[in-house]
Amino acid sequence: MSFGDPNNPYGAPQQGQQPGYGYPQQQGQAPGYGYPQAPPVGPYGGAPAPTTMPGSVSAARVMLWVIVGLQIIGVALFAFAAVGVNAAKNDAALQEDDAFQQLADYSAGMLWALVVFSLAWAVFAIVLALKFNTGGNGVRITTLVFAVITAILGIYPFILVGLVHTVLAVLVAVFVGNSNGSAWFNRPRY
């Protein structure tokens, strides 16, 4: 049986001919039918948990270590100043200086209190920096409170020297408080 003209687009294809114009093509399932594919889901239906520390959180940890270094320098300076004031109290030339004696009466104790406070603040920053890998949301909140208090203390008593502390503390608060910090500190631990 003949199908007629070989150039007829509605006729059956000839032996050895490729399907061309007018012949139905075999096509697979076209992508895009149905709903778009959703991203992978983490526990509790959220975004997948980060497996490595985000860059902003890592930068916050580095800034905490810088704050620790500055605190250690402050401890050394306060201790040196306290020793100097204690030594100057017994100087005969300064015994007649009423202004220095009034300053020396309470400043040595105040300087030693600043030494202790600065050392305790440095230890607190060390503990927070060490907990960034394993800590949960409590470490994040504690770091935020630490950064805010550090920024405030950097502004008021130590305006010129504390400016670096203030800038670093504000950056730590921003980096730990953003969504990357939240995702890192709220990630599941297995």
TrEMBL record:
Taxon lineage: Bacteria, Bacillati, Actinomycetota, Actinomycetes, Kitasatosporales
Keywords, sorted A to Z: Membrane, Transmembrane, Transmembrane helix
Keyword Transmembrane helix belongs to the record: yes
Transmembrane segments: 62-88, 108-129, 141-160, 166-185
Protein's recorded name: Integral membrane protein
Organism per entry: Streptomyces glaucus
Compositional bias (Low complexity): 9-35
Region described as Disordered: spans on this chain: 1-35
Keyword DNA damage: no
